TrEMBL record:
<protein>
    <submittedName>
        <fullName>ATPase</fullName>
    </submittedName>
</protein>
<dbReference type="Pfam" id="PF02374">
    <property type="entry name" value="ArsA_ATPase"/>
</dbReference>
<dbReference type="GO" id="GO:0016887">
    <property type="term" value="F:ATP hydrolysis activity"/>
</dbReference>
<dbReference type="InterPro" id="IPR016300">
    <property type="entry name" value="ATPase_ArsA/GET3"/>
</dbReference>
<dbReference type="InterPro" id="IPR025723">
    <property type="entry name" value="ArsA/GET3_ATPase-like"/>
</dbReference>
<feature type="domain" description="ArsA/GET3 Anion-transporting ATPase-like">
    <location>
        <begin position="25"/>
        <end position="189"/>
    </location>
</feature>
<dbReference type="GO" id="GO:0005524">
    <property type="term" value="F:ATP binding"/>
</dbReference>
<dbReference type="InterPro" id="IPR027417">
    <property type="entry name" value="P-loop_NTPase"/>
</dbReference>
Length: 337
């Protein structure tokens, strides 16, 4: 990303804080909508003025490493991108086993004894008999990174979580509240209560990524209803892969198409014109469907941000393009459509 003068940087920070005020940004969406790409772009967008952001994944897919063309991420915070003004994006792949070892060392001071549990298979046993424990460990690590300070300053300007898809997001984020309710005393209860409080505070916002297609839009509506019922704050609806209209007319005649083909020096025989008209009508029909879906999303009562379709595919340049769009288009900004 391009750096500018100090006053430009200050203006960018101010805009970012107004548009994306949370410190923990949870990004979810139906599978195939590009939520990992959007999470990565948001991490780039929120870095600036020499500050750091942390991009976290919890599903073990190593999607972040693929996007940034790096080696598979370890259970350690590794720098994966640097901006022109010296800001950086770090990334972390949270491994449940390593998180459990860290948890045992932190709260029970087991140290090497805790690591010996790995050889006995106790960790697999624990996460198998208590499936919710896995999500508690994952969200607990994210909470720790979000609230960590050094020298009286936050380590990260923002933490961006590439979260599970919409069909599982409510259960994933609510597991700590359930654990806090069931556990009466001890570190697990305290840990769970702390994470649940962060997730339900203004510090956190869940952004839902969708495409202008029927199933992703329906899952977006379902996820927002579920999260609202759980009292977890929903941030923005992010429409990914938005394309500008190729035609603005409500109807295209064969005569108009023929004149356009002739003017462009292209074949204008009957078969070519008829085929082009069929494609034009299909495009207009699809455009009308997309406008209807866009209206459905706006009716959900959350700010809508649109990201352009990347003709060249998702590479580092493409991520920067999406990051620039996210930085400029916060809640209330005009959409791309």
């Amino acid at each position: 990303m391009r750096s500018g003068r100090s006053d430009d940087s200050a203006a960018a920070i101010s805009l970012r804080n107004r548009s994306w005020p949370a410190r923990l940004h949870v990004v979810t969406g139906k599978g195939g909508t590009g939520k990992t790409t959007v999470a990565a772009a948001l991490a780039l967008a929120l870095a600036g003025n020499g500050r750091r952001t942390l991009l976290v994944e919890v599903e073990g897919r190593q999607g972040i490493a693929q996007l940034f063309d790096t080696e598979p991420l370890p259970y350690a915070e590794r720098r994966i991108a640097t901006t022109a003004d010296g800001s950086e994006v770090r990334a972390l792949a949270v491994d449940p086993e390593e998180a459990l070892l860290e948890y045992l060392d932190m709260f029970y001071k087991l140290g090497m004894a805790g690591r010996a549990l790995r050889k006995l298979g106790a960790i697999d046993f624990a996460t198998t008999i208590a499936p919710g424990l896995r999500d508690i460990l994952l969200t607990g690590k994210v909470k720790e990174a979000t609230t960590r300070t050094e020298g009286g300053r936050r380590v990260y300007e923002a933490v961006i979580l590439d979260a599970p898809p919409t069909g599982r997001i409510g259960r994933f984020l609510n597991v700590t509240a359930e654990a806090a309710r069931l556990a009466r005393v001890g570190p697990i209860k305290n840990q769970s209560e702390g994470v649940a409080a962060i997730l339900r505070s203004p510090m956190t916002a869940v952004h839902v990524v969708t495409l202008l297609e029927e199933m992703p839009v329906q899952e977006t509506a379902d996820a927002i209803a579920e999260l609202s019922a759980l009292k977890i704050s929903v941030g923005n609806i992010i429409i990914n892969g938005s394309q500008p209209p190729l035609l603005t007319e409500g109807r295209v005649t064969q005569a108009e198409l023929k004149r356009g083909l002739v003017a462009a020096g292209l074949p204008a025989d009957r078969e070519t014109v008829a085929g082009l008209r069929t494609e034009a009508e299909a495009h207009l029909t699809r455009r009308a469907v997309e406008e209807g879906l866009r209206d459905e999303l706006k009716a959900l009562g959350r700010p809508v941000v649109e990201l352009p379709s990347l003709a060249g595919g998702v590479d580092r340049a493409g991520l920067s393009t999406l990051a620039d769009t996210l930085r400029q288009r916060g809640p209330g900004a005009d959409t791309l459509g």
